[in-house]
Amino acid sequence: MATARSDGSAGGLEGVVVADTRLSDVDGERGRLILAGHDAEELGGRISFEEVCALLWSVDADRLREQLADARVEAFARVKSLGGALALADGMSALRAALGQLTPSDMDEAIALVAGTAVFAAAWARTRAGASPVAPDSKLSHAADYLNMLQGRPPDPSRARELDTYVVTVSDHGLNASTFAARVVASTGSDMVSAIVAAVGALKGPLHGGAPGPVLDMLDAIGKPERARAWIDAELAAGRRIMGMGHRIYRVRDPRAAIFEKAIERLAASGTDAKERLALARAVEHEAEESLRAKHPERPLRANVEFFTAVLLEALGIPRAAFTPTFAVGRVAGWCAHVLEQRATGRLIRPASRYVGQTPGAGTGDPPR
Ligand code: COA
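Above: the input entities. Below: the structure tokens describing the complete assembly.
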């Protein structure tokens, strides 16, 4: 049995292969991410979200663009009837509740879920800010329409393009925790909505998708590059983790960090005020790496996807509370693809646990009181 820790206890499943997939591959030693047969660097900034969905789902991209636009309109028609779901304080809880109200018989589950994730995430963020939800615009691309529904106006082309860079790049990433959760549910023969709701619950956690908001909190708290080292060392001394650093698979810098850095540079060049934030983030990354190297010389802890996600989504004008829901807007493409792939295997995922409790008759023999 695979064990994760030096004390021999099981728990993290690292290195355990539980699925064959053609969707994506993460090479943690070399820092290479393959998405549907392409290097992630070749896709981010070059293709649209609809096109990456088409690659992952093996369908026609033009037709999918129309279907997704129609499905956003259908999802928006449901917004009024979502009741308390959109009033929840946390965006991922809202998304979980809202997506859970979709019925598995919906025309095409994957399309309805992808459309619903963008529509409900935007409607939740607007409601939270005390504004009315904004209807989708079928003429826009999925990424541009998400910004439109979030911000109440169609984005300029450079912002739409960089949101595409983001959602394409995060659309799939091997058997991460949320994707695994989706595959486990799918393997029981349950419906796709249930699988995606489980994945949303997993992505919500700070060790998975919940880190970018705290990364920005950290940048705010540090404020100036020269304060980074002392702040980070104090966090580590207090036994806290540095958000946006470290990864279960990557032993080098997460390749998605470089893709997002380039996107932020492009935004900074096109007139947003991202330049200063990027400079601070780079300084914090450098100091965090140095401090973590000193504390854990045995384990490379480098920037992960969340570190520059925070800076990129901020530069796109997305509110901090909507960062993890925006991650879901991209990752739902991969979740749906994995559910379809898992279904095709027809095999239940059912691992084993090691019993470390008492065996009746082997201990004192006294019954519990
Ligand atoms: N800051 C400080 N220490 C860290 C760290 C971080 N970001 N990431 C890992 N470590 C330390 C752990 O405390 C642990 O130290 P210990 O052996 O003294 O207890 C050691 O490195 C190994 O950590 P472990 O939890 O076994 O690694 P993992 O593979 O399970 O963790 C993450 C991967 C992503 C959960 C972890 O790096 C983390 O919590 N990062 C911060 C949250 C984050 O950015 N999440 C987004 C992930 S994309």
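Note for the figure: The mean pLDDT is 93.
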